[in-house]
């Protein structure tokens, strides 16, 4: 079966080895790395494009508000022209009413009235015509009195004035007498015991040019005054002379306001205001291109400015990206040197964050070298201590075997000594770098032998630091003293007590081990391993002076150890 399976696997295509199932389905391709300049350019676009769009939106909104304000202003200007024209017409009607009250007119003395009317109209660019009920001219201030007069060109307006008995304002008409385009105001006068007469005061259409110019709208706007038939009375546009017809027509419902119409092959914005007095209209217009030109210019300037800023920002992004890339390459080289265990020299970077990373890499390389040196030192120290431990264990085996009566006693004694050595070693490893506290060392060795009543064991002395090697020796000595006390002394019953005191004096560490018991037990004649440790290791290795005293109530050991054998600076303070 295995052979067949192997053959099948050999002939499978390479894709058959690809993973399948849920794991393969959830595996995502690694993201593609890109230069930092790409991200900076993207950041420029993210910041610039929305700003341009928002600026364009604000520009359009501002333009709309401005256009609405300008339209309101232009409507006001157009309305003011209507008011000026109405003032002119009102002045003509007032003149007619004044002339109609002249006594010579009521006395039907038209010759005298002719002279008085001429004098009243001097310098006013107006002429007075008197029509009879048949609409025939009976007097004209432009013609000497008594000369024959032609018929009137417009008979509709005078007839309406007579029929309605109200003043009427005419449309623009061509005067056969003055051979020019004029408009007039007709005032019917009804007299007692005499047929009615019609006073007609006419003006040339061009006399309203000042009204058009005074109220003319700014820029490319043109203004025209048109009559009720939409014939031009006066216009600021040279293409529209008096009597001409507007090139567009208004809807019947459009009396006033703003609209758009086509004229002369393009679209225009139109403003119209109608005069209730004359039924004339003031029309203002301008090409739509003129209205849209400012916003088009503003948008073009916005686009040009945005493009300029975008190019400048892209150049800046490229420059910054190049600086970042260069610093990143330098950091990469420093990282490779760090990985290879080579020294890393600090590099000056123009970007502060990269400078911080470069300094960190340099410090890391230095710390790594120090760590490696420390590891090598520690390895040598471990080897040295291992040899020492083996030497101590070898001595423990020999002495324990020499003094053991049976195998069980050997095993028990050796196990306890090994445990004491282990506790010393644990304490050594935990505090080797800063030194081992003497009190902690004593407590670690006494821990297996401590009675249930903690008041039976008392320790007193200053804080002293002990180096690793002497700590092992002292720990073994304390262990042997505690072992003997548990067999024969203060730790062998429920009533005895133990006092351990130490102090510093004249370059020596004095240690006293004092046991208080009811009855001094019978000590064995043979010298045990504990005595060997105390005499050889404490006396020989630590150069300690050892004194052993037997009291009626217990044994006392005194050790005087040179402080320089502890190889640490003691830290003063009472426990």
- The helix fraction, in percent, is 40-55%
**For the CA atoms, what is the radius of gyration?**
63 Å
CATH topology grouping of the domain at 69-289: Beta-Lactamase
The total count of helices amounts to 13
What this model shows, in words?
It is a single chain. By secondary structure, this protein is an alpha+beta fold. The protein has helices spanning 2-11, 22-26, 36-100, 103-106, 110-120, 156-164, 209-214, 288-339, 352-403, 407-431, 438-446, 468-488, 529-541, and strands at residues 126-131, 137-140, 168-169, 173-175, 180-191, 194-204, 222-226, 232-235, 257-263, 266-274, 281-287, 436-437, 457-460, 465-466, 497-505, 508-516, 545-551, 554-562. Strands 1, 2, 3, 4, 5 and 6 form a six-stranded antiparallel sheet that branches. Strands 8-7-11-10-9 form a five-stranded antiparallel sheet. The chain has a five-stranded mixed sheet with strand order 13-15-16-18-17, covered by helices on one side. Helix 3 runs antiparallel to helix 8 (288-339) and helix 10 (407-431) runs antiparallel to helix 11. The longest helix is centred in the N-terminal third of the chain and has 65 residues, at 36-100.
Task: Give the structure's gist in a few sentences.
The chain has 575 residues and is an alpha+beta fold. It is 49% helix and 19% strand.
Q: Which features characterize this protein?
A:
alpha+beta; Beta-Lactamase; 5-stranded antiparallel β-sheet; 13 helices; 19% strand; rod-shaped; disordered C terminus
